[in-house]
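Worked Example 4.2. Read the sequence first, then its structure tokens.
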Amino acid sequence: MKNQQSVPYNEDVDLLSFDIFKSLTEEEVEELGQITNCTLHKRGSIVYNEGSRINGTYIVVKGIVKIYKTGFDGKEQIIRFAKAGDLIGFRSVISNELACTTSKIIDETVLCYIPGDELTKLLKENPEFAMALMKLTCKELGESNKFLTDIAQKTVRERLAEVLLLLMDEFELDEDNTLQISLTREELANMVGTATESVIRLLSEFKADKLIELNGRRIKLLNIPKLIKVGNVYI
């Protein structure tokens, strides 16, 4: 899918550097490289919209992509963030269904587009790749099930603490213990599943409790053990 806010990316991309492609043969990698189209996307651009027909999948080479659903009131519910090495859009290709989510660039990103026919061919001819993709699908399903349980059983305060810890696991901390992903208060609220005002209030409470330190969009984690306790997270 073409995007007006994308330009060709002409640098070499080593597909074997991504775990999902580790099982591919040299011939498969060479063939994949010949038909893969890589593009650089600016922050704010849409990769594909919910309800659209996706004819291929994307591997994230670098950057961050927000995956979300839109409610009847227009409010976003963030499902996850995709980073380098992640595949997006593959479920709709395999199931031959319309996209059930929207993908939006939140940090300058390089994506490589893999046609659906090539993905299907690899699944049929390479059992190890098929198993890797199956494991990835199961992992995403497990995360979705956990999210539904948390929404039903945890307080907003618990969910916010858990989201901060999730972002720490996904994107790690810098040398100053600051999350290496910058999100708006609205995006945090859309991850937690609550109103933006509630997240703003709770972040202030976390700051007062010396759990975090705020510097604009940047969040520094001061007391990770206490956040684990607040979030009722089992590690």
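Now turn to a second chain, presented in exactly the same format:
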Amino acid sequence: MWGKKRAGAGKETPEAVLQAARAALAGLTDPVGGKALPESGLIDSLELVGDQIILALKATRDSATQMERLAREAEAALLACSGVGAARVVLTAHRAPGAKTPVPPPPAAPAGFAARHGTPGKRITLPGVKHIVAIASGKGGVGKSTTAVNLAVALARRGHAVGLLDADIYGPSLPTMLGRRERPAVVGERIQTVDVFGLAAMSMGFLVDADAAMVWRGPMVMGAIQQLLGQVDWGALDVLVVDMPPGTGDAQLTLAQTVTLAGAVIVSTPQDVALADARRGAAMFRKMGVPVLGLIENMSYYCCPECGARGDIFGHGGARLEAARLGVPFLGEVPLLRAVRAAADAGTPIVLAEPAGDAARAYGTLADALWQALAGRPNDAPATIADAESGTRAG
């Protein structure tokens, strides 16, 4: 869990803070082997990002309960160190040498997580959330985050209760696109959403400094995604839109294993190189038992702002053809407009900045198509993940 920020932190050098942290951890004992924590081999990593310290501890399924207690003790010890403003302890998946695991094991949950949401590897239930939808792409640079934000706002403008989760831990873009940078409040042990433009929003970008580099291993990223889902007070939502990082890796697998997805929406540009990656993305979700709700063609065509002439810079219609080939709905297309980029950089989604414009109408059409795809779909149908082999991960 996230330790609360303390006033006056950040005056010491990073080396001094880490030295103090190691000294504090030396006072803790491995609950299984009885050794001092630094000598136990359980510390996977200890990193300082700004004034936030992150400790990763190795854990197996059998030791998870005992390690949960150790994680809470470690968090308290780290928070007591001078120069530490916030502390987070995660448990990383670890298996004994020689153990065979044909399917990647579910990531271990962050400290304090199991006590509230079950043992590691169990699904999280968000009882107030009717539908969870992943907005994904096979590759970066296709406008997936812009699409996710404007889709969420368009849904909210239609009277739906909407949450928006930025699941890109390494490159969170939500604070920029929503024009908000404040740290979310913590009530009890629940992180409160940042409420903006009618959305209940959450992003790693709200929790770390804007220029902080998230130099984390895969298990830490998976633990963070679980935490953003399970320890955030999402409230009652008609739909939670999840802006996924690009690709077909740990984040996608973690999401499918942690919550029940109503489906995934694949965003692509029209050209063949992007469509090939979109095809792989759709195949990944299908292999994990997640319905593909449809494809969106972004940057579908260019409209000159001076003369209004139209040009197919990346080709046109490729996503529609690909949707037909895959047997999934084609949800619609969004033009390539300078105003969309400018509005995102300014922190106001184009759906709100120019509500009568071509882009806003396009996103509104997409929102209607997505909601229609969700209509009547149960939010508690279990997904099949038995076929989620290591081959679904990015290579």
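Notes for the reader: The first strand starts at residue 43 and ends at 49. The chain has two domains: 14-117, 129-376.
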